[in-house]
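MODEL INPUT / OUTPUT PAIR
PAIR INDEX: 1
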Amino acid sequence: MTVLNTNSLLLAVFAILGILMSNNNGNMVAVQACIGDLQALRTYCANFLEKNMAKSNPSPMCCSVFMTLNVICTCNHITKEVEQVIDMEKFFYAAKYCGMPLLAGTQCGSFSVPP
């Protein structure tokens, strides 16, 4: 039941995020790429990033998402709703594990990457 609720919440959060971002006419290509990054995170990394789940190393598919991730766009669009589902410490860990460590002090949602 928890997995279903978590997946439903993730889907709703990313759907709302996609609607909000699609209203930005400034740079639609960048917005679409960012939406793709967020959807790929949900598809390939949700099991590794969810709160209340044991910490584990991300899969090679999840790492491939991190290696192509637009970190600035992704971090700028991590909302409080997303933070209710995603463990940000696991997000930072996965980025580092996958060879894409975030610089200390980088703001990602309401969290800063620790030194």
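PAIR INDEX: 2
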Amino acid sequence: MGRGPGWQAAFAVACLAAGFLPVAVGYVPEGAARLAGSFAVPAVYLALALATRRSAAMRRYWEIPLAFFGLALFVLADRYVPGFLTADVLHSPPITGNPLASTARGTVVVALDELVLTVLAVVAVLLISRSSPASISVRRGRFGRAYVIAIVGLVAFYVLTFRALSRSRFLPVHGAVGLGRYLGLTPALLVAVLANGFLEELMFRGLLMSRLNVAFGPYLATFIQAGIFASWHIGVTYAASALVLAVLFAFPLGLIGGYLTRSSGSIIPSSLFHAGADIPIYLAFLSYTS
């Protein structure tokens, strides 16, 4: 960045904090404070991006706060727009008046709903910055090692997840999942994991990593986005130990996704690999369905 390693380190820490802030607001008790914070965070990031764009010294970095605006905009929409879905669908028993609860369709609806919200947030950022989808690696890219790793990984996760069902206590499934049921759940399972894999890769390896690269270069940008990605998983509700999930699962997955995206020039391989890694998690969701 031209301002010395100390300044770069401070900026990296600031980016890590900025990336975590949108989800940190969710830890505030429900009420006026959380509502105000949820709207204030994207507004501040957008204002900061526009102010940075007007600064001759900082103009080249203005799309970094704009990327954080996109992440915060998604969190805002996800927190308030589809609340009637996410609160009562995933790994929930049947609920009177909610036909989606405890159904495979409900899990798929949530995944597709969040995919749409992500795409809308990213499109808003691209429109503001007048950038193309290719600038955030939304393209076919180079077919090579990254694609092979991604496809092999997706298939391996699918096969090994079923093999682990009968011999591992690390898959928190509800009830027995035999081969017939596993195959029956496969269409919903694949739709859900592919949707979630793509939306998270679009945000973190596509939008965020590409913008951080301007300030930090490829290697440090990859580590920063992986750290932010991991921080978003600290508060998940589907893990017995969210911190362990963030450190041992989400952070390495963020690094692998960064590598696959950089190697191919596309988020498609990282999305496929990410989808495979999500199979055990979404199988746990779907195991609650009748």
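PAIR 2 NOTE: The first helix runs from residue 5 to 24.
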